[in-house]
Amino acid sequence: MKRSLLPLILVLFFVGCQSKNNVINLYSYNAMPKVSTSLKSVYIEGVKDSRTNDNLVGVIKANDGSIKEYVVLENDLSLWLKDAITKELNSIGISVKADPSVDASVLLDIKEFSAVLEGFDKDNLKASANVEVIVTKGNTIIKNQVSQKQSEFVVMKKGSAFSPFMQNLLNDIVKKSAQQIKNSI
């Protein structure tokens, strides 16, 4: 009896430890309403994604450094970012209009959004994001780089570890970008 259970237990162990989830989904951005109000309004011209592969957001590396798995994003990052920036701007008192004849127009350019999960050392999951915020106010163009790196330790080397980590990184980028827009108008 014990011999017949051992293969079953081993199969269940290996199946349970395999990485199954290598597609992550970003949840809708929730802006926390602030008390400040402004009479300013902006037009979001668009969000450009300049990354070479706009679906790939991360890799899981084997012990030898080779890529074991790719982690892809289910969402369209440009659409997600536009929606999130709109919500955050509204929450800090800046209205987003569909009419380009407002105080300023904004163009966002996603330069980087990627992560690497490698090894079992401390801070084995590392990510970085970079968004260029271009604010046009009359004849003045103001360009700002909003970037952030972060890292943390994760126990299981699988795609699902990326989801909350990358979501938090993007939430920080959205808040910083909205603040840059507010400071520029």
From TrEMBL:
**What's the protein here called?**
Lipoprotein
Q: Which domain of life is it from?
A: Bacteria
